[in-house]
């Protein structure tokens, strides 16, 4: 249900006169800075997957620090916007490109031609997925041995926060985890997928309608062979 609804929602958003909001650009920049602080990128060797990449705001921020970035999204409309930006910047597909791909498809094909990644990042999107355990396990399968998964999303605020007032845009059909996550939920999903050295920390402070909120950064390493 959520996959189909999100695909339709973001395709529709991309088909309109799309322009990323200043707040979205700033949030992607701050999430990107947090990721850069907690992973040692090498612009000559680090191969990155940006999962649920949208139009590529996060990818654009981290691409200068990586050898290559492949964006992955369920929305073809967003993938097209992502690739249009890369083309307009004169970037080669080997450096920055996006593909439409559902990692939870029952018989998924491999659009990466066997490529596996040093790091998989996902920012401000985990709350859209019904089963974060299934998504985490799928993403780990695309990591190289010793590779790292990094997720940035909202720490669930206290019960005193009215989620209906704070997140009216979080429609029930597209957001499975309204208001974000508790630490235990994320850590358990990471550990169940086989990740080691799992870390969870507050990483980005944000304000929404006068309410102070925090985004977390969670990181785990796939065992080496």
Automatic annotation (TrEMBL):
Keyword entries, A-Z: Methyltransferase, Transferase
GO BP field: methylation
Superkingdom of source: Eukaryota
Signal peptide bounds: none
Keyword tRNA-binding: no
InterPro entries: Methyltransf_11, SAM-dependent_MTases_sf
PANTHER family linked: PUTATIVE (AFU_ORTHOLOGUE AFUA_2G14390)-RELATED, TRANS-ACONITATE 2-METHYLTRANSFERASE-RELATED
Protein name as annotated: Hexaprenyldihydroxybenzoate methyltransferase
Organism: Ephemerocybe angulata
């Amino acid at each position: 249900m959520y996959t189909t609804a999100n695909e339709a929602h973001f395709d529709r958003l991309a088909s309109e006169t799309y322009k990323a909001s200043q707040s979205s650009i700033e949030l992607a920049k701050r999430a990107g800075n947090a990721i850069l602080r907690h992973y040692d990128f090498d612009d000559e060797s680090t191969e990155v997957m940006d999962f649920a990449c949208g139009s590529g705001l996060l990818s654009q921020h981290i691409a200068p620090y990586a050898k290559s970035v492949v964006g992955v999204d369920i929305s073809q409309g967003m993938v097209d916007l992502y690739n249009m930006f890369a083309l307009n910047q004169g970037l080669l597909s080997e450096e920055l490109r996006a593909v439409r791909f559902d990692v939870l498809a029952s018989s998924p094909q491999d659009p990466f031609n066997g490529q596996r990644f040093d790091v998989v990042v996902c920012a401000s999107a985990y709350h859209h997925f019904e089963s974060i355990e299934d998504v985490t396990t799928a993403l780990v399968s695309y990591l190289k041995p010793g590779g790292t998964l990094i997720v940035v999303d909202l720490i669930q605020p206290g019960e005193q926060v009215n989620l209906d007032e704070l997140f009216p845009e979080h429609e029930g059909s597209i957001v499975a985890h309204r208001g974000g996550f508790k630490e235990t939920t994320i850590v358990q999903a990471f550990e169940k997928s086989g990740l080691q050295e799992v870390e969870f920390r507050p990483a980005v402070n944000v304000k929404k309608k006068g309410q102070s909120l925090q985004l977390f950064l969670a990181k785990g390493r796939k065992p080496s062979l």
